[in-house]
Amino acid sequence: MSVDEGWPAPPAEGAVTGRVTVPGSKSISNRALILAAIADGPSNLTGLLNARDTTLMRSALVALGVGITESGATVTVTPGSLKGPASVDCGLAGTVMRFVPPVAALADGVVAFDGDEYARERPMDVILGALRALGVQIDDGGTGRMPYSVSGTGSVRGGKVTLDASGSSQFVSALLLAGARYDEGVDIRHDGKPVPSQPHLDMSVAMLRERGVHVDDAEPNRWVVAPGTVRALDTAIEPDLSNAAPFLAAAVVTGGSVTVTGWPAATTQPGGQLPEIFTRLGAEVSRDADGLTVRGTGNVHGCDLDLSEVGELSPVIAAVAAFADGPSYLRGIAHLRNHETDRLAGLEAEFNALGGDVTQLEDGLAIRPKPLHGGLFHTYGDHRMAHAAAVLGLLVDGLRIENIGTTAKTLPEFPDMWSGLVR
Ligand SMILES: O=C(O)C1=C[C@@H](OP(=O)(O)O)[C@@H](O)[C@H](O)C1
Ligand SMILES: C=C(OP(=O)(O)O)C(=O)O
């Protein structure tokens, strides 16, 4: 058996300076694919992310009977009549394991879902329970987890459903995205602690409205999707701003300057909050026609940050905070325990193994900066743990990243792009 000795994280030789172009947003790409698959005609998608999560989404939709072809930079999605039997591999993709079952419910036949070993740990009970309440037959052996199968009859009644989406916004987005195709549409109420990741909910609603679907989200914790057609739409996908985060962070911690090209003027991505977050951490942010530029000032400030809306940015922010002039508190992110790994436990364990002082809070992390030493940083199959490790490795000699290949979940080019920027 070969032992993974880890990818030597390139140390910064000085201030990291450069320009980076990141590929398409995972969250927009997978929503665009789902919505195109249930639309009233073919859609042409450009700038679609090509990574493990989008490949899994494409395969899932093709297995259900959707046509997907590629010509140059354009991916054309042609809706077909949705049919089982089919098997869907979800890998570790939350957007596949949560967003595809509500679409599979519209298929005629049985659709079986499975995924990576750790995917079986990610909660599914809320979305499976909601689908049952909307009239869908699901078999999960009573576990509320993967593997499960959805037995569709070609249509879904839909209607009212109450759920607790405090564990993941994806439970709500999943129903929103397919709901217009249900006979009665869908009327979702959330009952529980706050739903995280508001930008991702806004993204779902905005993308539905762009395709002519009527969504009423005026009442807090309630979303009503009218039954109707999802219009086909040719779409250009924005760059993935969450994947831009580690590159910008490199400027923050080394006192350098990094520009991410094509930064959208307006966005529903959580990364839209990065300018404000990096400013609070001590950096200077500017934008021009070329993109967004973050300049490190030589000082990183310890901060108390509520990251509940932007949880997926937390690992990289934690890495920046490890070099701050005082402690930082990252709050509102208890749901990170449900991500690709238990990110709070993972960040605590791995930072502390390098000599750090990180403790889990009930809903987040306390990070007290300390001198760190090298070692093997475990990623737990989590792309964003690898991003965090790479940021640490800029200033910590001898840091090696176990399974750097895990970055292929959303950015297969990460190791090359990172080495290209840092060296
Ligand atoms: O809808 C989406 O595309 C996502 C929603 C968020 O999930 P949670 O609300 O579970 O954090 C986010 O963290 C994930 O990376 C992508
Ligand atoms: C939480 C994440 O992914 P997923 O879509 O698998 O939930 C993430 O990318 O940070």
UniProtKB/TrEMBL annotation:
Belongs to the EPSP synthase family. It comes from Kribbella karoonensis. It holds the Pfam family EPSP_synthase. It catalyses: 3-phosphoshikimate + phosphoenolpyruvate = 5-O-(1-carboxyvinyl)-3-phosphoshikimate + phosphate. Keywords: Amino-acid biosynthesis, Aromatic amino acid biosynthesis, Cytoplasm, Transferase. It comes from the Bacteria. Gene3D superfamilies: Enolpyruvate transferase domain. Residues 14-417 form the Enolpyruvate transferase domain. This is 3-phosphoshikimate 1-carboxyvinyltransferase. Coiled coil: none annotated. It is an enzyme of class 2 (transferase). 3-phosphoshikimate binds at residues 26-27, 31, 168-170, 197, 312, 339. The active site is at residue 312. Phosphoenolpyruvate binds at residues 26, 94, 122, 170, 343, 384, 409. Its EC number is 2.5.1.19. SUPFAM superfamilies: EPT/RTPC-like (SSF55205). Pathway: Metabolic intermediate biosynthesis; chorismate biosynthesis; chorismate from D-erythrose 4-phosphate and phosphoenolpyruvate: step 6/7. Monomer. It is found in: Cytoplasm. The gene is aroA. Catalyzes the transfer of the enolpyruvyl moiety of phosphoenolpyruvate (PEP) to the 5-hydroxyl of shikimate-3-phosphate (S3P) to produce enolpyruvyl shikimate-3-phosphate and inorganic phosphate.
